[in-house]
Every structure is written in structure tokens, then in C-alpha cells.
Design goal:
heterodimer, A: about 140 residues, mainly alpha, 6 helices, globular, B: about 140 residues
Chain lengths: ~140, ~140
């Protein structure tokens, strides 16, 4: 659709505003994998309440918008092996690299962090190679 | 109070992911599909998100602490190491394979269907074992 970029830009501004609120109000970097991962491995036990607050907000607003606007297309694969391998790679990779698209991408690159740029270049390049290999060469996704 | 601000931040984040279409895996894989039918939407999302964040970072340089009194994050590290690159490559492979990253997984919990829960379970398992793997990567190579 032609309007996709407008929705992308508007949604992006909201995402960045969320990051700005977390930084200016709580002094925290908005990284989804770090906020969730700290609860999973116990390293964020002291800040569990604010982590849960953030995750609750992240889950609830889309729920509300979904109820208000009707069905949402996710085009998620139904191949269980791909879902499991993909989930493991995302969980492992984001915690080993200490960040994902929100932490290294949005928050890191916006303060010209070298690590943010290197991480983002790495995951975008790896993602593009993966789509090339599995979509166009092996044709499984 | 801190949890309340965090909820507000999460709500903005979730609304933004929903409206921008980032919970649609075909838009994410479309952005990575540079040799196919390339979809530029994610670039607008990333660009749009970096604007308020860049502003917020500039505010932190003029203030001594956050609204709740907590200190701002220290300046970014510059160390480029094996865990940063290998972790990001692993993440990127999973991201390309399925079209999901951690934020949109949480955002689509309500409408993602059974496949999302399979992905979420595997992702949480990966996050649980990551610290053990990371400490191995961070350890300097033993001398012969």
C-alpha cells in the first residue's frame, strides 16, 4: 500500500516517544530484549516491577487497538521447526549481543553509539542473507 | 511511579509497533528482502523512532538526572567484541527467518496466534541459556 510509509513514520515516532519517556522519566534505555531478558535470567530482579510495567504497556495497547480495529495480519509462518529455530536464535542472539532493534537500533544509533551501528549493520546483513538463502535459494520461507 | 512511567513508555512502544505494521512478519521480511520485493516501511519506522530519541538524548546532556531522580545511562561503550557481532548475527538470522524481533513478539501477544507462542517459548529459552554462552564468548582464548 502507498500509505504504509506514513503509518511507518507515525508508528516510528510513537516508538521513539516511548523510548524518550523511559529515558527521561526513569533514566533507562528502552531495549525490549534487555527488559524481558533481565526477567528471564534474573539479572533484573531489582527492577522487576518497572520491567513488568513496560511489558504490560507493550502488550496492552496493541490488544486494545486490535479490539477496536478488527483482525490484524501477522503472516506468521506455521512451520514449527522454523518458529523454534528462529525463536532460539532471537533469544540467544539478542542477549549475547546485549540488545536488539530497539536497544541497539533505535536507542543506540540515535546517540551515535558505535556499538549500536555495528550491531544494527550485523543483524540487518545477517537477516538479509537469511531471507536471500531461505526465500530465494532454498524457497522454504 | 517508575512502573507507571514504564507502562506509559511501553504503551507508546506497543501502539507504535502496531500502527507501523511491525507485528506483520511480511513487512519485516519484506525490508530484508533486498533481492526480491523490497518493502521500505521499516526504514521509515526506524527513522521516525530515532527523531524523538535523538531529542531525548540531547535533553539528558542538559539535565543532571531523570524525572524520578535516577541517573541517566553512562556514555556508550565503544568496545566492539565477539559477543556483540556474533550475537547480532544470530539475532539477525532468526529475525530474517521468521520476521519477528522481541518488541513485536510482546506487542502481538494478544492476536499473534499459536505460532507466536511457539516462537515466544523458544525465544525465552534462548534468553535463559544466553548468559552461560556469553560468558564463554567473553572469556579470552586460552594460551597454548
Amino acid at each position: 500500500m502507498e500509505q504504509d510509509w506514513i503509518w511507518g513514520l507515525a508508528g516510528g515516532l510513537l516508538i521513539g516517544s516511548g523510548g524518550a519517556v523511559l529515558l527521561l522519566a526513569n533514566g533507562r534505555i528502552m531495549g525490549a530484549s534487555g527488559i524481558l531478558g533481565g526477567l528471564v535470567d534474573g539479572s533484573g530482579r531489582d527492577t522487576a516491577l518497572e520491567r513488568l510495567g513496560f511489558l504490560l504497556g507493550t502488550a496492552c495497547l496493541p490488544l486494545l487497538l486490535w479490539v477496536l480495529t478488527g483482525p490484524v495480519e501477522t503472516h506468521l509462518t506455521d512451520n514449527i521447526a522454523i518458529l523454534i529455530i528462529g525463536g532460539l536464535l532471537v533469544g540467544l542472539g539478542t542477549r549475547i549481543a546485549n540488545g536488539c532493534t530497539s536497544g541497539h537500533g533505535v536507542c543506540g544509533m540515535s546517540r551515535l553509539s558505535l556499538r549500536g551501528f555495528v550491531a544494527s549493520a550485523s543483524y540487518i546483513l545477517a537477516g538479509a542473507m537469511c531471507v536471500l538463502l531461505f526465500r530465494h535459494i532454498l524457497e522454504v520461507i | 511511579m517508575r512502573a507507571g512511567y514504564a507502562f506509559l513508555a511501553g504503551a507508546l512502544f506497543g501502539a507504535g509497533l502496531f500502527l507501523s505494521g511491525m507485528t506483520d512478519t511480511s513487512k519485516v521480511q519484506g525490508w530484508l528482502d533486498v533481492f526480491g520485493d523490497w518493502d521500505p516501511t521499516l526504514a521509515f519506522v526506524m527513522g521516525g523512532a530515532m527523531l524523538p530519541m535523538a531529542l531525548a538524548w540531547s535533553v539528558t546532556r542538559r539535565r543532571s538526572s531523570s524525572l524520578t531522580g535516577a541517573a541517566f545511562p553512562p556514555p556508550p561503550e565503544r568496545r566492539i567484541d565477539l559477543s556483540l557481532i556474533s550475537g547480532s548475527v544470530m539475532f539477525g538470522m532468526g529475525w530474517g527467518l521468521v520476521g519477528l524481533c522481541p518488541g513485536p513478539v510482546i506487542a502481538s501477544l494478544s492476536y499473534g496466534g499459536w505460532g507466536l507462542y511457539v516462537f515466544l517459548t523458544a525465544m525465552l529459552a534462548g534468553m535463559a541459556v544466553a548468559p552461560a554462552l556469553r560468558s564463554r564468548l567473553d572469556r579470552p582464548m586460552p594460551a597454548e
